[in-house]
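Following up on my earlier message about uracil. Here are the inputs again, as you asked, copied directly from the submission form:
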Amino acid sequence: MAKIRLDKYIANGGVYTRSRAKKLIHANKVSVGGKTVTDEAFKVDEEQTDIAVNGINVRAEKYIYIMLNKPSGVISATHDKKQKTVIDLIAPQDRRNGLFPAGRLDIDTEGLIILTNDGDFAHNTLSPKKHVSKLYAADVENYTFSAESQKRFGDGIVLLDGSKCKPAILTYKGRGEGYVSVTLEITEGKFHQVKKMFESEGGRVIRLKRLSFGEIQLDDALKSGEYRKLNPTEMLYVEKIKNNNGA
Ligand code: URA
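Thanks, got it. Here's what our run produced:
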């Protein structure tokens, strides 16, 4: 990889002029690999991806796609005065202007959420027309799993407000003290959808975790609160969605 000066690297990003880049470097606003660098002539790789100005990554790569294992207690928003957001979990060198969660999980829902600055991808995955399937693991209180209930989910549950859901696949996983563990695959994204579906069966979801989103599965290696960029195989799915051929 070709080595270039830090001020040139920043100017190549297209946001700052070369002279502005120099000023930012002298003002301690630029980091390389998380460490502040004050020498404008510092040599970096042209393809290096861990250089930030004011905490925002400046690399030329236009879009970023991150898989986050969202913990409970964190909200799916970009900023909030009181609550911790999913963006707060992303290290400065991986942040971009416009980074936001593609879809929402409730504050108490855990698991897979994709963060991106690619509005087209987010729009396409959230469009009801795309029928992107989402798989959740749920622990449900006051609920008895039965073939009849499974069929109601399969036919399309009617919520307490009278609205009918699209067919969903309910699978029994086991039983704990006072609750039943299931997985549920849905293709919609109504507000509190999984919780409301079980409410209409008299149950209460006490733990909810998203395991997959379309063809992208939560990486088992990610502990709660950890994230990684989508790998090349997962990126094929992103491209598929963007080209309107999504699942
Ligand atoms: N359904 C819910 O009820 N909550 C979520 O966070 C996601 C799906």
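One observation from looking it over: Residues 78 and 87 are 6 Å apart (CA to CA). Hope that helps, and feel free to reply on this thread.
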